Amino acid sequence: MHPPRRKLWETTENGEFAAAQPDDRKPAFLGVRGCDLAALGVLGRVLGNRIRPFIVAVDCTEPGGLCFCASMGTGPGVRGGYDVALTERIDDSGHWFLATAGSEAGERILATVARREASSDEVAAALRDVTAAGGRMGRAMPELDLRELLRDSRTAQRWNDVADRCLTCGNCTMVCPTCFCTTTEDVTDLTGDHAERWEHWASCFEVDFSYLHGGSVRTSAASRYRQWLTHKLGAWHDQFGESGCVGCGRCIAWCPVGIDITTEMAALAAERSADDVDV
Ligand code: SF4
Ligand code: SF4
What we know:
2 domains, 10 helices
């Protein structure tokens, strides 16, 4: 829904500008978990995407060690916005799926596969397993007003602590399903006859990302990590009316030095509590 790289325009042979043709194919996503379903919604609202993909979503009954969707309110069960929702079942009767249609397109797809009405016991057992998965998440975000915590933590020592570990590689922003920042680049061929403008993903961890009339505003790792976290969990609410984090855990998985967004928020909360005691 937000490609890493796309052409915006190019010059034609007679020196005119031609907009790149938009890719208006309608995608279908299979096996979308609750966190990513929520991320598709967040990204769609931020970018104003008008193409609605066809979505086969899946409830989680076995959460991963880095997941914390339960504490972000996005999983482990999928919550609307799908065409078909599945819950995987493995029991004495074999391996099967409980399926719910969420749209007319979903009903049409389900009508083409072998199926029967689920019993109320089967529906209740599936719901029980999904609810139980919520209690087995490997991580949890502190149960606090995160936006307020970040507002109170502007000058926290923890930013220096995390900056000592952070490589500012930007991996966390590249894998995050809601990060949307981009930059543009103009390229030309060797003859100078043809030029193109490309948009590609950018990261707030790049020094150039905050370049303004002669210099970068956020030159330190501490300020760049603070920017990322404060936008994702705080200012996102002011801009878009919701959190920018869906609890997927990818930024933890892909951080080469093991920085964990839930641990950092817990540390900021502990530092604020200690400051309150000191006062
Ligand atoms: S901040 Fe991390 S856990 Fe939250 S949505 Fe982005 S990648 Fe997932
Ligand atoms: S992935 Fe880890 S090291 Fe890289 S910028 Fe993000 S927090 Fe820093």
